[in-house]
Amino acid sequence: MRLQAALLTMLLAAAPAHAQPVPTNPATWPTPTEGDYIAQKFRFQNGATLPSLRLHYATLGTPHRDAAGHVDNAVMVLHGTGGSSQQFIRPQFAGVLFVPGGLLDPAKYFIILPDGIGHGKSAKPSDGLHAKFPAYTYDDMVRAQYVLLTDGLHIDHLRLILGTSMGCMHSFVWGETHPAFMDALMPLACLPVAIAGRNRIWREMIIDGIRNDQAWLGGDYTAQPREALRNASNILLIAGLAPLVAQSRFPTRGAADAYLDKYHADDLAHLDANDLLYQVNASREYDPSTKLDSIAANVMWINSADDFINPPELGIAEKMAPRLQHGKFVLLPISDKTHGHGTHTWAAVWKDYLAELLKEK
């Protein structure tokens, strides 16, 4: 088994970034291209090192290089906790932004959709290391994105970083860590402060539930700890559900119960306990609050008033936004068009603010 692992590592180390088309809906937006970049000897914040780290991504469009050979039309879009690049290849996002004439038309922009460490098709605990996988943080995830862009795709500047939920938090980290790397940031559905209060409590409930399930076996389970995952699934559902939308879609007890049954069947079919634990716990050291004034990019920061995870009554955004050099905070009012925390992926709700941001230089 050790020999097989060593051979696999060698093969991955020798593999260049490669790409292959992924089926989607070519009638409305271009077919994305998927690829992998293998980062060598990737060192994590806690000192752990992996000899090779697979970083998966999807792209739309073609990079354009200026007279000096630099890509000048790149846009990076960052997903949320438990998500992947594929969450953006949907009508409510791609069908608004990535279509011909859209604000992020791939005929004009080179769009990069990375899978964060521990997510999608990038390296994650369930690949084989289980609980021995390095305990990554948001700083590790952002550094991996930087390596993918610079070493894998040879991009040294971005026109825009747009991030949703966890990707929203990553965008603040990006703005502070690499202030000259991008022209603009559009964080959607987050707060630039340490994860505390109710936000940390529900995350800790998921983490504790997994670790205390007897079937977890310290991460070396052979069958998923179903009860822990069912409880986690319930918490995640409530955290992302918008009351107005839920009341409209499930106006009767029977409709609500039927939805919950289907949700569990779909969600539990793909959840992995170690992957989920790592994903939720990766936010533990996040806190960009002390360096917000170091962000040089133009910032269009948007939250929704029906967001359970980032409730407006905390008043945090209004206190933090004035510290941005070139920033604007927008709180979207609750309406039949908002979707709670998930409003970040319904581009029609906030696309006018994106248009405003892209006009700025």
Structural notes for this entry:
The chain is of the alpha/beta class and 361 residues long. The protein folds into two domains: 2-190 and 294-359, Alpha/Beta hydrolase fold, catalytic domain (Rossmann fold), CATH 3.40.50.1820; 197-281, Rna Polymerase Sigma Factor, Chain: A. Helix content is 34%, strand content 18%. The chain contains eleven helices and nine strands. The protein has helices at residues 2-14, 94-97, 138-152, 166-177, 197-211, 226-240, 243-249, 253-268, 273-281, 316-320, 347-359, and strands at residues 18-21, 33-43, 49-60, 74-78, 110-114, 158-164, 182-188, 298-304, 327-332. The chain has a nine-stranded mixed beta sheet, sandwiched between helices. A hairpin with a 5-residue loop joins strand 2 (33-43) and strand 3 (49-60). It is globular. The model is unreliable at 1-26 (pLDDT under 50).
Largest sheet: 9 strands, mixed
Total domain count: 2
What general form does the structure show? globular
- Would you tell me which CATH topology of the largest domain applies? Rossmann fold
Radius of gyration: 20 Å
Which architecture name of the largest domain does CATH use? 3-Layer(aba) Sandwich
